[in-house]
Amino acid sequence: MATTINFGIDLGTSNSLIAKFDKGNVEVFKNPNGFKETLPSVVGFRNDRILIGDQARTYLLRDPKSVASRFKRKMGTSETFKIKAINASKSPVELSAYVLKELKTFIHSGEQVDGAVITIPASFDTVQSNATKEAGTMAGFKTVVLLQEPIAASLAYANKEKNVDLKNSQWLVYDLGGGTFDVALVKIVEGELTVLDHEGDNYLGGTDFDALIVEKIVVPELERRGTFADLLGEMKSESGQYNKLWSTLLLHAESAKVELSSKTSAEIDLGTVSDLVDDSGKSIEAIINVTRSEFESLIRDSVESTIDRMKQILTRNSLQPADLKFILMVGGSTFVPYIRKRVEEVMGIAVNTSIDPTNAICIGAAFFAGTKEKGASQAAKEKTKSHLKIRASYNKTSQESEESFTARFDGDITGLQYRITNEDGSFDSGTKKVAARILEDLPLREGAFNLFTLKVVDAQGNPVPIDFDVIQIAQGRYSVAGQMLPEDISLIKDDLVARDTRLDELFAKNSILPSKTKRTVEVAKTVVKGSHDSIRIMVVEGPSNRHSSTNKPIGMLTISGSQLVKDLIKGTDVDLIFEMSESRDLTISSYLTGTGQDFSQVFTLAQREVSSQLLASEILLLETKIQSEIDDAQTDGHRETAESLEKVLTGVQELIGSAADLAEDDVTDKKFQLEDQKRKLAQQMFELTSTKRLKQVKLAYNEKRSEIAKLVKESGNDRERHVVSEIIAREQTFINSTSPEKIQQVTDELGRLEWGILMRTPDFLNAMFAHLVERRASMNDQIQASQLIESGKRAMAREDVEELRLINGRLWDLMPAQEQASDEMRAYTGIV
Amino acid sequence: MHPNSISEVPTWILKVLNNVCDIERKIQIHGDPGNAKRNVDRIKETFEAEKIFYEDPMGELFTETRTDIEASITGSGTENLHVVEVIKPIVRIGDKNFSRVIQKGIVVVESKSEGEA
Hints:
Strand order of the largest sheet of chain B: 2-4-7-3
Structural class of chain A: alpha+beta
Largest interface: A-B, 55 and 47 residues
Distance between the termini of chain A: 60 Å
Low-confidence stretches of chain A: 377-384, 477-481, 821-826
Order of helices and strands of chain B: HHHEEEEEEE
Helix content of chain A: 25-40%
CATH class of the largest domain in chain A: Alpha Beta
Number of strands of chain B: 7
Number of strands of chain A: 36
Mean pLDDT of chain B: 86
Radius of gyration of chain B: 15 Å
Number of domains of chain A: 7
CATH topology of the largest domain in chain A: Nucleotidyltransferase, domain 5
Number of helices of chain A: 21
Mean pLDDT of chain A: 85
Largest sheet of chain B: 4 strands, mixed
CATH architecture of the largest domain in chain A: 2-Layer Sandwich
Oligomer: heterodimer
Low-confidence stretches of chain B: 1-5
Number of domains of chain B: 1
Distance between the termini of chain B: 37 Å
Number of helices of chain B: 3
Largest sheet of chain A: 6 strands, mixed
Radius of gyration of chain A: 36 Å
Structural class of chain B: alpha+beta
CATH superfamily of the largest domain in chain A: ATPase, nucleotide binding domain
């Protein structure tokens, strides 16, 4: 166990932070909800809950009688905060203790924190300092060491810039935060950092700047654009017509202010405000531009007042600016370039912005904590082991949007508090007193597993071990109302690389109906307007990791050239929507981006769609495939397989005859029977050859894998490297699968990635260009080919990769169609 | 999913999604003569495939136990609060079964009487 305190806390007026020193480094912890480092120092009481931070701040302005903030400024006074919701008063010490306890929950390692360095303003007297210490003790820290904020900031700086010699020097720490301003004169006296003097303004900070932007820039501009009787008044009044706009504008102003730190102008875009109209109902132009110089003139007076306070310190201490080494800037508002510039200008010395102004004080506190020994009493740590028994009862599955959770506590529950949070970061019950029986309504996320954590802490905020922690509720899982799908439903797409088709799963087996999904596919070939050519959107039912021919067709939407209003160009997008009703009726809707046309069709299971013509061509395709499989099996000496395949082939050949007799408009169910037989034969063929194919695809995968590993290392970018390592990491999940298609899919994915990288690689493009040049004689337009080849050579000489790639593409287009086709599969569906 | 990996989602992704959400809201408010909604949907689907998606909490109920949104209250009431303006959407990482909030929504909420809500 560490002997040093290690934890540093910036217990701020507006925001608080916690950090830990570990082996020379400091980590600032983040709020597990929302991942911000800062916790607003606000405590709210609503009903029987205690809320701390963002949640409490929400109610700060509207329910001030039950929410306490800025209590730091009241530390050490007898003043208390009357809290209406609990009909009691809370002292600033108690309120600070709540914040400190909440900060403990930021520590993701889950370790116990028994000591901390807590920072205090330079202006704190002994009584105020003792009060801070008391808050620390109340929050369960056994050792509390106080540190003045300007010193903490200076320590953060000194630890960051280790080479800077601060001996015999003095400097100012200028701390302008969200709502307060402090300035302090710091000097090293006899080897120790000491605050010699300080000044401050408790009501000046960044939030005032936001309000100024709204009042002085946005409101006058809106008044120019529309007719308003009293816009500002109506905005600021709770019951005012434009009260909602006030909150909205403040949030937008804050973003604009942040943006103005890096840009010279920022836009406040009110286009997302739903009812931006003036008194007469006329809508108002939504974009308001704020320039940095406008913003600077707004805050000028405030900034001058901070400079005056710095001057006061210097005068009081008979110092000239030149006596100072620098002015150290701390606090979020010092990001504003004007403040940095103005301070530097007036004071005539450099401002120091080398530390992160938002967390510097906390970091400094942690560095200090890393040097501070824990108190002796620490060793004698009395640990009251809890013998709490919890019996919980709740529904583990639910159809509701909310479920009640109840639990009974047996054992000593005095002073204990509990808290339930959703692990997804969307719910926090706040801390509540443990009673013999507790009840909490937990909101559930639709269609998801909802995991909640129950934690119990003692009066000091230390976790109490319990034998129960996760509450798991599945919402909408086991619907009795919804039908479940017995098989996967997939879309057939062309796979140009494998010269085959592949399945894209639309609805997984056991999905609950009704269900809806969308896909955007690309047209794989140009379909000329008025032609007989077509693309087919085919949906099949069956295992999605098998080949499409083993699946049962359930719907096909054909879009042919005769239906088009203009040519459908290869590469254009088609939006597809698939809807499956509870009674398993499938609706396919498509929108052709290229032509702006909509097509849609409903397929019911009763009227299965099988096209005689398509069936016949599928059977022929199957025959060819089986024939080649037989050849392979014979070559490899697999006699048994070859014999079994022969039988399948005979079956297929019989089918060819029957299918040929079918009329395209056949109305009997003959074609369904044939389709069924075809599917079964295909299934047999795939089963018979699966061992062979498994071996092949594994081999192909391994080859592709080593190829791409090398390539991605040499020429890949971060994303590609990430994708490859991700695939390799999950290799075990597919390589041992019995489904060749599954492995093939991954190999194809690697293939696409490889192609993408190659197309950027100069060597590959050069080789491709050389290859195309060789085939120049067969190109369609010799003049154009010559010109392109000349340009290609120049591009090569210039090493212009991008240009060369374009030229390669255009040369390829000049190749005769049959030569191109030899490299492409016959488009089966026409979509990829 | 490791909780620490969540906070490592690059901020550019959040910036893009916040803007996509803005576009979506503008389309809702001002109409969509150019059919831009389709492009918005495709962008969203592309991100969804990478397991990142956003949710627009417009109109939803806000209670003090919700930690997926940061709200500013407008008007005088503090009960039965509903989201009336969305500055930033809620961004989540994960899939339908389990996802986590990686960006809290920034919203304005207002008390509504039963009839209005």
